[in-house]
Design goal:
By secondary structure, the chain is an alpha+beta fold. The protein contains twelve helices and five strands. It has a five-stranded mixed sheet with strand order 1-2-3-5-4, covered by helices on one side. It is elongated, with a radius of gyration of 30 Å.
């Protein structure tokens, strides 16, 4: 009887998590699979361990279909298993040690607790975008993930070898849970640190470019005065030919400074971090010998979405244009137009691209990228934009011209995250 109730509780934990945390159509298929496994497991309870291993693997496959990263899948899977472990620890392990154990009542408490934890996580994710921190996972973290997973299973195996009613069992339960929780928290803190560094980088880039710009202006001012003095001297001495030459040279030099495309458009953007993104984009484009044309039609002031989200949206779009630039049309520049009116902010970027064999739907999937190791492509762009009711985006591919276009419009009225 005890094993039957345990089986029921385990499958209910899995199904509750599936429906509370993952609003995806695919979960219906997995629900049918889990219910089928549940029915079979009820008839052969002595093989429950093998069913649990299979459940772990199938749940991992479900998560992999969402994140398309094996290491991130393992990290998320262990994190969600830790939530179930915490509910078991509070509802079963502690009461059992103190002699307050009633299987039926404790099972009800466990199901209520795990449901509450899942809903709490969903509310936190809705408010603080908790699972976005996991999207910051990089390949550099895979060794830490593998090591922590091995240590977790070693701790868990040792824990399971201890008798249920002993203090050692209670202690190893707590240690295993704390280890997994600590690793997850450290991971999130590391991602937050990385994001802060990434957010700071555009400021530093803008600061450097601005310093170089004003240094160039100082140099121009000094040279300009020298040219004027030389021109004045030649005019006083009636050196007409020399005066015309100096005047022509002064005109060309002045126009070069006035029409400096690296600074003029961007000075109409108020936020230094956003300017820094574009400076970084131009530097990388120059390194790759990719032409670009940037137009800022009106001054860009505050935009009506979260500041970090704004940086991420622009950064993804700019990176995408460089990653998927078609070298077959190297003379065609990446064209960028920014504008802001009383009604909305708009950003449009177009670049030559070869999308043979690729659909627009494909490039919005996680893992679609020109990088050898894959990448996020425009997946995160779409996820970020869809949070806001005042944000619209459109992607299109003009097959005749072989040009990919992305347009982002952020309405100035009403900000509401879904």
């Amino acid at each position: 009887m005890n094993s039957i109730i345990f089986i029921i509780v385990v499958y209910l934990n899995l199904l509750i998590g599936l429906y509370v945390l993952f609003p995806r159509k695919e979960k219906r298929k997995f629900t049918v699979l889990y219910l089928g496994m549940f029915v079979v497991n009820l008839f052969v309870p002595k093989y429950t361990l093998f069913f649990l291993i299979a459940l772990y693997l199938f749940q991992g496959y479900f998560l992999y279909r969402i994140v398309v990263n094996p290491y991130l899948t393992v990290l998320l899977l262990n994190f969600l298993m830790n939530v179930i472990g915490l509910a078991f620890f509070v509802a079963y392990d502690i009461p059992r040690y103190f002699g307050l154990y009633d299987l039926g009542m404790n099972s009800i408490i466990e199901l209520i607790l795990v449901t509450a934890l899942y809903w709490w996580m969903r509310m936190l994710d809705k408010k603080y975008h908790l699972f976005d921190y996991f999207r910051g996972y990089t390949k550099k973290m895979k060794r830490i993930t593998i090591l922590s997973t091995i240590l977790f299973f070693v701790l868990y195996s040792f824990h399971e070898s201890i008798g249920f009613y002993s203090f050692d069992y209670l202690l190893t339960s707590a240690i295993t849970l704390l280890f997994n929780l600590s690793y997850t928290l450290l991971f999130i803190l590391f991602i937050i640190y990385q994001k802060k560094i990434n957010a700071l980088a555009p400021y530093l880039k803008d600061k450097k470019e601005t310093e170089e710009y004003y240094a160039k202006l100082d140099e121009f001012r000094h040279d300009y005065l020298n040219y004027i003095s030389a021109l004045e001297y030649s005019l006083k001495n009636k050196e007409q030919e020399e005066s015309v030459r100096l005047l022509h040279h002064l005109k060309e030099y002045s126009l070069e400074m006035i029409n400096d495309a690296r600074h003029n458009p961007l000075k109409r953007i108020a936020e230094p971090a956003i300017r820094g993104l574009f400076y970084d984009f131009m530097e990388r484009a120059d390194q790759q010998e990719i032409a670009y044309d940037i137009q800022v039609l009106n001054p860009i002031l505050q935009v009506n979405i979260d500041y970090i989200d704004m940086l991420r949206l622009l950064s993804i779009a700019l990176n995408n244009s460089l990653e998927h630039y078609s070298v077959k049309k190297s003379t065609v520049p990446i064209a960028i137009v920014l504008n802001q009116t009383e009604e909305a902010f708009s950003f449009k970027i177009s670049n030559p691209a070869d999308m043979t064999g690729t659909s627009l739907a494909d490039i919005l999937k996680r893992g679609t990228s020109a990088k050898k190791e894959g990448g996020l492509g425009l997946y995160n762009f779409a996820k970020l934009a869809e949070r806001y009711t005042n944000v619209n985006y459109e992607i299109r591919y003009i097959k005749k011209l072989e040009v990919f276009e992305l347009e982002l419009v952020i309405a100035e009225k009403k900000k509401n995250e879904s």
